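Running this now, will post back.
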Amino acid sequence: QNGIDISLIDAKLVNAKSLLDSASPEEKNAAINILKAYIYQLEALSGKKISVEDANTLINYAKDLINHLES
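Update: finished.
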């Protein structure tokens, strides 16, 4: 598993979502850009430094958060 605790990362994403609910449009756009960069990093590490399964789980959480911010 390479030492990555998915539940801790999931909790961080949930906390970030709750904080961003009251963010300004500019802050939300910045957060979306950061999440997209996060996704690209996960895709690059998938199957190498992080398992494909874990990478896909984290990518899906990030995409859900992006969808939430865009709605």
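The helical segments are 6-20, 25-45, 52-70. More later if anyone needs it.
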